[in-house]
Amino acid sequence: MAATSSKPSFVELYTPKLLTVLREGYGLASFKADAISGLTVAIVALPLSMAIAIASGVTPDRGLYTSIIGGFIVSALGGSRFQIGGPAGAFIVLVAACVAQHGVDGLLLATFLSGLMLAAVGLLGLGTFIKYIPYPVTVGFTAGIAVIIFASQIKDLLGLTLANEPGPLLPKLEALAGAWPSASPAAIAVTAVTIGLILLLRRLRPHWPAFIIAVAIAAVGVAVLGAPVETIGTRFGGIPQVLPLPRLPAISWEKFGAVLPNALSFTLLGCIESLLSAVVADSMTGRRHRSNGELVAQGLANMASPLFGGFCVTGNIARTATNVRSGARGPISGMLHATFLLFFMLAAAPLASYIPLAALAGVLAVVAWNMAEKHEFATLIRASRGDAVVLLVTFLL
Question: 319-348 burial by CB neighbour count: b if 16+ within 10 A, else e?
Fold first, then answer.
């Protein structure tokens, strides 16, 4: 008798984990746990989504649209039980470069094309090959992105007045140094208070949402004292209280060819970031994600996000880990996280106008410090000459 093939079927490879969890039996206790974890992640994601959007060269509301639309689809259709989707710090450099070159319409088109590519990578079964990317490459890349994120926040961290901030790192640092005399003591104070509160809360109350508490206290302080610092309201006029109606990004053959390299870079980083995040969730829970199904969901999320004005969606390691630690039972937690964010935007958008940009820059400075993987970087430098060379070349490039 011929041996039965153990190769998983198409349905087994691409069935969303949401259906798997529901088939296992999903009761009220699980829903309560998912509601608590979803709310916790939403509170963490609220300031981060806006901060990442601003650092990427777009308005803060686009970060919220990305988390709401993309985050819901990633959780509803993905191959991981615990993945949280939304804008990620690792994309800041790529997104900002795309906006500078092609404008917001170009970014939306590049994101949509990236979604098509991600879905194709998943359907072709190529997700399993991502694991062969050398570890020193991912560490060097992440550390390099962390440095650039921090450099991009110096202007708001110090409240500098700078008409044209260069994109490349060295000219940027030179221009920032020249603008040092314009530094604002009020902005520096807001930055110091925000970062200090985050670090203090993480030390004394690690389960509290340090980001949102620090930003809220900074906003109240600035409003009460009338401190002369830039806020979301003064720079962007606040954020809308409605989710925009879906519309296709402007498409032409010329624009298509121009943004294709950006779309390819979004796709490669999206594959790496999302699957690394899913692997982290697996290591924390003992579960196994479906890599190709996850990439298809990431692709659909990136096709839907720009229809509503959002940009690149990917699995986020920090928010996914928060989801797991908060007691999530399955993907409904991530879907509720997106729903809570939508509620926050609809109900509390006017309050966002009071958030100081120095406070959001402080949040991203902490994110950059945490994502630099300093211990892993130092370990690889000492491990072998080959690892050190690959690490440093990736980091410097």
Answer: bbbbbbebebbbbbbbbbbbbbbbebbeee
